[in-house]
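Team,

Forwarding the record for the chain on the shared tracking sheet. I've put the sequence and predicted structure together so nobody has to dig through attachments.
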Amino acid sequence: MVELSKSEEELINWARTQVKEPWLGIFRVAEKITRGSILTPEESEVAIPLSPFRADYRQLYFLFRELLPVFVFQPANLFIIVLDSEGKRIIRAYLQETRYSNFVSLKNIELSGQWGEKAEGFIAADDPRPLRDYLSDCFRDQAGEINWVMIANIRLFKVLKEILDGLESNGGLSDYLVNVYLALKKIYANGWISFSPTPNILARLEDIFRKDMIEYRSSDLFPQSYEPVSKSDIFVIVLRGRDFTVALRLDPRDPGNLTVDKEVYDRLDRIPFRKLAKAAARKTGAKMAIALSLDPVVNLLYELVSRPLPYGSDDQITILRKLLSLIKNFKRQWTICPSPIALKNYVRLPARLLGLPYDITNLADWFLPQVIVQGSGIALGQHFRTALIILEGTSVQAVIILEHYDGGLRKVKTFPVSELHPLFERTGPGYRSIREAVIKAKHLIWEKDGWISFAVSIQKNLLSELRSLLLGKKLTSLFRLPFAFPDLVRIFKLLRKGGMVVYPDISLREANKWVKKRGRFWVYSSLIQIPFTRKRPRTRGLLYVKSTIIAAVILGVIAGIILRLAAT
């Protein structure tokens, strides 16, 4: 055993209790599930290491089975090497074994023998590429195929300890995410972790942190810029795989629990997919539930993690096509509850009978991505920077600078609110006053941080109104629709009073003049047809006749209601 310094020994002991033991608990549960053992809820509930979350691993097991090959490799046996603080000596080595794309065991690897010296030579030469093949040859008898190698400096555990210390100091979820970001930034900046070869998901992390795609400073934000989620809002995501159903939830009253009760998702497993979201919302009391077929989600995730960041134009087009193809397959690949009026059958069937193309299943996923990507490049340019200013009245809450290159997002950074706060504090309410402040803010950011192409200010209460309108049930039924008009009126008034201001806005003004000249009805009716493909019904058989009869009845009922109202 390699001799350690006092500080290294303390970090190893901490990692053994706070990192290794929790992972071993997850591996033991995964190994039992792999063997077909029936576990109680108490036996299957695990704590996610270094996080405030816990979950029923009987659900996460199936997710790992499908997602691990996308994010990493298959079967993904991992050899772990821990170096001393100087990064020269191997002080610990482990092997994580997988079965059915789940990690099921962690073996200690003895440091005796000649393998360690040669492995240290590969690491010192900063050429870890042949290391995996060498380790596979050395440990083939006891470990089988080694798919990838992780090399970690022991200082990594000091950063992980800072995350856990911050979590134990009763920090909220937003504070926890900030601490994780700061930890990853420190780890990658110092090169305290590396992989050979680098898995897709971790390669994207390297893209973000080694290319400095995110520059975040909490001191740049107003102390109360985060808006808490309503304590009554519960959201559920149901994932339907080939042979399983998994239900994940976000419950502000119990934020640590990621999965719903076993009794609930056992019942969901027997529900037809088209009714899955509605059943999940009813059984969990969720304000919103979304059901997704896992296969198209996996395909989309693969595109997201396999392409280097920042995404180029071709990457964006491919990803958008995958996303729009998923959206297009409503009720086959996704459902939502409560569903918006536009997705209701009593709206879609009459539109289909009248030959109108405005149906989500007619979404033009084959050419719309190219229109969006290339159209935005023509309208906004290939290289531009946008300053997004979040306001609460005349108080600046946050300033975020978005830098785009080749149409893709290259960098996100914060800008000190203290620099812009005096500009807005001296302004009065109203669109013109806020617009003048936005113009001054654009030039000030230009002087301090470089050229800004666009400056956009948004009021927090406008975002709150939009959130309330979209997440409420007022847009989910014709009977509730009249109750949405007060919300729409408030949103319209907020926009007129400076709820959202864009500068420069010459292109928007010219577009508005053109719309007035051509006629709003003609322009809007033409634009709304662009996302949809006109096509004939696929069949004229019994299914088409059935849909036609139902749509005709719906149209007749609506016409009767209109005539009755007109008569009164």
